[in-house]
Every structure is written in C-alpha cells, then in structure tokens.
C-alpha cells in the first residue's frame, strides 16, 4: 500500500481495539507515585500521556517507533546507499510504526509536493510584520494565516461525526507539513536575502528542496538537511512543543492552531531556541578570547557564564542522563565532512570541558550536550550562518512528529486534557492530613 492515509485507515480499527483492551485490562493500574516535588518541579517524571511515535530512555536516548538513530540511518531509505535517511521516510515510520519501502517514501514525497501551494494572503500577513520580527514569530504568524485552510475546522462546523475526526486532521497535517518548507524559506529569504525568493525544484526530495529554496545547493548541505530534519522530528510527548500541540489539539483546535501553539513553546531559549543561543555563545567565546584557546581559558569562560547567572546553552536535559544520540550523530557527520573546521573544534573542546564543570557545580542533573549543542556549527559550515533562524529549521522538522501523533490522538478519540492543579494551601492541608493518618 503506497498511500499513507489508506495505510492509517487500515490501522485505525486495530489501534482503537488496542486502546480499549489496555483500558479495560489495566485502566486501574497505578503508573507510579506523584510527589509534591514533581508537582512543583515541572511535572518531571510524572507519567501522564500516551505518545506512540517515539519514546525517550534517559540513558540511551530517543527511539522512533522503537528504532534508534543508527538503526533509522541504516534501515530508512535515503537518496544514495549509506547516505542520510529521507525525512519523508521518518514521517511514514512515525505515522505508522513501519519502515517504509522506497516506493512508499517516493509516493509520500510526491504527495507532499502536490499539497505544497501556499495561498497569497499568508505572505501578506508575514509582509505586514517588520523584518526585524524574530523568524519564529514570522513562522507562527504564517501558520496562523494558513489556518484559513483548515479542513478539520470546516468539517467540524459542518457537524462531522467524531469517529471521522482523524480524516480532516490527517489532511490538515499533511498540507501543513507540505507547506512549511516554502513558508520557512520565504521567511529566510525575506529577512536575510533582500526578499529574493527561490522557487521550489520539484525534482528534489523534501529536505533537499527546502535547502534549495533557502539558497543552498551543495549536495552535502542537502545531506545535512536530510539528517537535521529527520532527527528533530520527535522526542516523545512531554517536551514543551510536543506536549503543547497535544494539549491544544485535545480541545479539538485544528492542526494549524495546535502546531502554532507548540512552535511558540519551541521558541523559548530553554527549548528549541537553545540552538540559536549555542551559536551566539560560541561566537561570543571566539570574539572574547579567540578560537585557538587553551582548555584552561575555556574553563574560565564557562565559569564566567555560570557566575553571571546564565545557563551554558546546549548542555543539560530534563530527561536524558547521557550525551544525546542526536548530538552524537551530528558529531559523526562533522568528523566525516568537516573535521578541520575551527568552530567544530571549539564544539569538541566544549564537549571535553563543560560536563566536568557542570558536574562539579553539583546541581545540574545532566551535564552532557544535547541536540542543540551541535546543529548550528554544521549549518554555519555550509553557509547558513544566521543563527536566529535555526529554531525555524527545528520547527519544520518537529511538525512531522507532533502532527503524526495528533492524527492518532483524534483517531483514538483521546479526551480533552485537564490535569489537576493545586494551591499551596491545598498541598499543605493534603500533606498534613496524610501525616495525621500515618502518625
Ligand atoms: N547550564 C547551567 N545551569 C544548568 C544547565 C546548564 N546547561 N542545565 C541545568 N542547569 C541548572 C538549572 O538551571 C537548575 O538550576 P536552579 O536549581 O538554580 O534552577 C539546575 O541546574 C537543575 O536543573 P536540571 O534538573 O538539571 O535541569 P532541568 O530539567 O530543570 O532543565 C534544561 C533542563 C534543558 C532546561 C536545562 O538543562 C538547561 O537550561 N539547559 C541549557 C539550555 C538548553 O540547552 N536547552 C535545550 C534543551 C534541548 N531542546 O532542544 O529543547
Ligand atoms: C526536544 O527535542 O524536544 C528536547 O530535547 C527537549 C525535551 O525532550 O524535553
């Protein structure tokens, strides 16, 4: 079967049965305790969401539908043998849990091309913003303008039966994924290249065409873009952008509204904006103390950053407790293609120097680098040097994960999300009454 929608339609009854069976068999089983620390500590570790597309192990890192990054690189179709996987293959994998054939990936790639036309008013909305507006602000404004195209919103208004919600959500999701590269490239060319827009090349795959519209035609930049757009797709459901899409979608807000909300979370410096912050910080290091620095000088600089009450961007993670495998695969790309780049050498030195300093400080739970510690250095090597744009690339990729899950949220009929909040007084009274019971 080469059509993704038909494949999902075939899976829906079986997945609904699975949900029903889990509910009836295990519905009352406790998944763990919730402590006061968890409730006031960013809900860390609370198991509170179904998320099928990927799962994060603190020690091993992400698995997309059970597959590690090296397995995906090996098993998912690429443009050439041994090359990077095509993000379209990731999309198929995330949406179905199955490794697609070359033909399925090709069909999906063509389907996305056929959906990619953006209505003119979207560009008018973006053009109404000053060019100085952050690229992420321009992205979400563009996505909000695209919301006029929502098939789900129209169908809902027309009285769609709830068993069919997933169908227009699928259409919206695919249309949005298809349109994001042109929208994102428009924003890049508008802000940084004097509005000199480059048209799509229909002979190229999703990632290569995106790079082409941005203005990059180097084959290695195309490979980098395939890798980049693949590894940023998904990071289970609890991260700010994914959780936001899921939460907003649970109110039956359409995929455009839900995704735009998630992107506003990705635009935060502790989340996706960290990739911009990393490059800016490395550039500050180089301009303050030079690129040929000793490890001692670098250590002093890191202490200076920490003393000023700032974080070292690109290090740490809320869940991971080892180096992010997304960092490792980017490092492998750099070792293969740009081993002598001075900025890459700086990133390598930081890999050596930052973790022991964070560990010695005694409060950071994970001193190791995350995905954002590496991506900017690769992009700047191939000429994409405007770091304020980097989070947009993250956002284009993240659409594939969060929207795949959103389709399943609606197919499974998951309810509106509404966890319980508490006041200080409530927490204190609750804890006192428990103490009373155990005394
Ligand atoms: N530099 C300095 N301090 C840090 C760092 C860091 N890289 N990471 C954590 N800490 C601090 C943190 O601010 C907190 O301090 P305080 O108690 O004074 O509030 C303390 O260490 C404990 O935090 P953790 O429990 O280790 O981390 P948490 O789960 O709260 O936050 C991050 C996770 C990712 C937000 C945090 O590690 C961080 O701010 N890292 C730098 C920004 C970054 O790279 N974000 C990108 C994450 C990946 N992504 O793309 O989303
Ligand atoms: C992500 O990719 O979403 C980040 O690593 C943040 C997270 O998982 O919390």
UniProtKB/TrEMBL annotation:
Keywords attached to this entry: Transferase
SUPFAM superfamilies documented for this protein: Citrate synthase
InterPro entries on file: Citrate_synth-like_lrg_a-sub (IPR016142), Citrate_synth-like_sm_a-sub (IPR016143), Citrate_synthase (IPR002020), Citrate_synthase_AS (IPR019810), Citrate_synthase_euk (IPR010109), Citrate_synthase_sf (IPR036969)
Any GO molecular function: acyltransferase activity, acyl groups converted into alkyl on transfer
Gene Ontology BP annotations: carbohydrate metabolic process; citrate metabolic process; tricarboxylic acid cycle
Residues at the active site: 271, 317, 372
Domain of life: Eukaryota
Gene3D superfamilies xref list: Citrate Synthase, domain 1, Cytochrome P450-Terp, domain 2
Example of a GO cellular component annotation carried by this entry: mitochondrial matrix
Pfam families: Citrate_synt
NCBIfam families: cit_synth_euk, PRK09569.1
Family according to the record: Belongs to the citrate synthase family.
Official protein name in the record: Citrate synthase
Native organism: Ceratodon purpureus
